[in-house]
Design brief:
Shape of chain A: elongated
Number of strands of chain A: 5
Largest sheet of chain C: 4 strands, antiparallel
Oligomer: heterotrimer
Order of helices and strands of chain A: HEHHEEEE
Distance between the termini of chain A: 18 Å
CATH class of one domain in chain A: Alpha Beta
CATH architecture of one domain in chain A: Roll
Largest sheet of chain A: 5 strands, antiparallel
Strand order of the largest sheet of chain A: 1-3-4-5-2
CATH superfamily of one domain in chain A: Hotdog Thioesterase
Number of helices of chain A: 3
Order of helices and strands of chain C: HHHEHEEEEE
Strand content of chain A: 35-45%
CATH topology of one domain in chain A: Thiol Ester Dehydrase, Chain A
Shape of chain C: elongated
Number of helices of chain C: 4
Number of strands of chain C: 6
Structural class of chain C: alpha+beta
Strand content of chain C: 25-35%
Distance between the termini of chain C: 17 Å
CATH topology of one domain in chain C: Thiol Ester Dehydrase, Chain A
Chains: A mainly beta (153), B alpha/beta (207), C alpha+beta (137)
CATH class of one domain in chain C: Alpha Beta
Helix content of chain A: 10-25%
């Protein structure tokens, strides 16, 4: 992409918002869940002991799930270091080790603003997780910010 | 009368506070402010009407905006439909002098906010763009300031002979009322707020 | 003191804060568990080469710290939503505080809303957000 090309946010929104661009299945590993929980400072046995009858993933684990591709096919590439700008997780049911989870991702929002690090473009992906019954386990919004290169104006 | 002149609700993209919870917090924690101004990012919230909430809680709630210019972010008090026709509030490349001119034309007041903050504060752009015309008031106390940002703001205000206001820049409930602006007389309407700002009858305070 | 019931909670109550382990060792273990292994989180020099001030604590780990604070305060709490804005990077090997305060109690739904912040040693907010949490009676 020409680094002087302006990001046309409106066009990107029209073309890509709301369209699922990734779907895959995975299961959660008990040992990794325990390490995840302990590293975050969780102390309850339902997060740290796989033998606990209610053993489950720490609720924020959904924030760690990444789609296999960051953006839809044919999405323009941008220069700049992408940084995590925010994470939001909504949970309907606990996620458990060994359960097959289907995750689908769509671009949820794109917008620009200016901040301490200059002009920025925000991309928000929404991933929805379901169990084998098709019940929604939860969803996770990931906001990635890219600092847009200064434009000649 | 003390007003927190800079707060965001869930209407702002990065705001997480419900206005009713701001009111509840102010009362429960006995925060020493009489009200606040909702200055949502890159928009004027035409939809929300907080008059019932304000009356029920005995708290003054005004609406304003925080827009983005080449000199950084700017609070606008006294937004009217006519002012909204003058420029696109969602544009992050507004010209500060145009925002000020348009505000003055439509009985509003534009106040550069957090001027000591890198990139989004006015002080960072003076060397590149020069001193902008028409700036009479800047925000010298901001509840979200880091390190010496408020000090930079105050020094700049002194150098440019600008008056100063204060605001919390709250994005979550518990941040409301950290800084404010003390007015000499009661301010009951947005018109009176604009008048008080124009009359220079106020001072910025930390709470 | 931990919370067991909604009725024990007062509006404006401050959750017990804690100082999380942001050491390189702990962050490295975390990113392996999360599948986020990257030099920007595990290697100070590599992070600086990317233009960062130092290796970063991943945002998801900060969110995990905030979740852990809630569970330490109310062990049976069910977090239904947690929403965080990453205002400034948290750096590996630096000291932070994980903070929360109750800003809404909904007795109809049996839930509370909590303001969340991660602050540095200068009391500057690096991460802020909210959580909506079910607390049973």
């Amino acid at each position: 992409m020409d680094k002087n090309e302006a990001i046309d946010v409106a066009a990107l929104r029209d073309q890509f918002l709301g369209k699922v661009f990734d779907e895959y299945m995975f299961t959660l590993d008990a040992e990794k869940l325990v390490q995840y929980a302990k590293s975050c400072g969780e102390t309850a046995s339902k997060f740290t002991d796989p033998n606990d009858p209610d053993f489950q993933a720490p609720p924020t684990i959904a924030s760690s799930f990444n789609p296999r591709q960051d953006y839809p096919d044919n999405f323009p590439s941008f220069e700049g270091l992408g940084m995590d700008a925010g994470k939001s997780v909504e949970l309907e049911r606990p996620m458990r080790a060994g359960e097959e989870i289907t995750a689908t991702t769509a671009l949820h929002d794109i917008y620009t603003k200016s901040g301490r690090s200059g002009r920025m473009v925000f991309f928000v992906n929404r991933m929805t997780m379901k169990n084998p019954k098709g019940e929604i386990l939860g969803s996770s919004d990931t906001s990635v910010v890219i600092r847009e290169k200064p434009q000649d104006s | 009368m003390i007003l927190d002149m800079h707060a965001h609700s869930i209407k702002s993209d990065d705001g997480r506070a419900k206005v009713e919870n701001y009111c509840q917090w102010i009362k429960a924690k006995d925060i020493a402010i009489d009200g606040f101004v909702l200055t949502e990012h890159r928009q004027y919230d035409d939809e929300s009407d907080y008059s019932d909430l304000a009356q029920a809680n005995g708290i003054t709630i005004f609406k304003g905006s925080e827009v983005e210019t080449e000199y950084g972010h700017v609070l606008v008090f006294g937004v009217t439909p006519a002012l909204q026709e003058e420029f696109d509030f969602s544009n992050i490349n507004l010209k500060l002098e145009h925002v000020i001119e348009a505000s003055n034309k439509h009985d509003a007041v534009a106040v550069p906010c957090h001027p000591g903050r890198p990139r989004v504060g006015m002080a960072a752009h003076l060397e590149e763009f020069g001193v902008p015309k028409g700036v009479e008031i800047v925000e010298i106390y901001n509840g979200g300031s880091r390190e010496n940002e408020d000090e930079i703001a105050r020094e700049m205000a002194d150098q440019l002979n600008c008056s100063g206001i204060g605001g919390s820049d709250a994005h979550i409930v518990s941040q409301i009322g950290k800084c404010g602006t003390k007015f000499d007389a009661p301010v009951n309407t947005i018109g009176e707020l604009v008048e008080a700002l124009r009359s220079n009858n106020f001072e910025a305070i930390k709470i | 003191m931990t919370i067991e019931k909604l009725s024990e909670i007062e509006f404006g109550e401050t959750l017990p804060s804690f100082t999380p382990d942001t050491s390189l060792a702990n962050v490295s273990q975390f990113v392996l568990a999360a599948g986020w292994d990257s030099p920007r989180f595990t290697d100070h020099e590599a992070a600086k080469a990317q233009g960062l001030p130092a290796a970063l604590v991943p945002g998801i780990m900060s969110q995990g710290f905030l979740s852990a604070m809630i569970h330490r305060w109310a062990p049976d709490a069910e977090i239904k939503k947690i929403d965080t804005v990453f205002r400034a990077p948290c750096l590996v090997d630096e000291t932070y505080q994980i903070n929360g305060v109750v800003t809404d109690i909904d007795t109809d739904n049996g839930s509370v809303e909590i303001d969340l912040t991660v602050t540095n040693s200068a009391d500057e907010t690096r991460v802020f957000g909210t959580a909506n949490v079910i607390i049973h009676e």
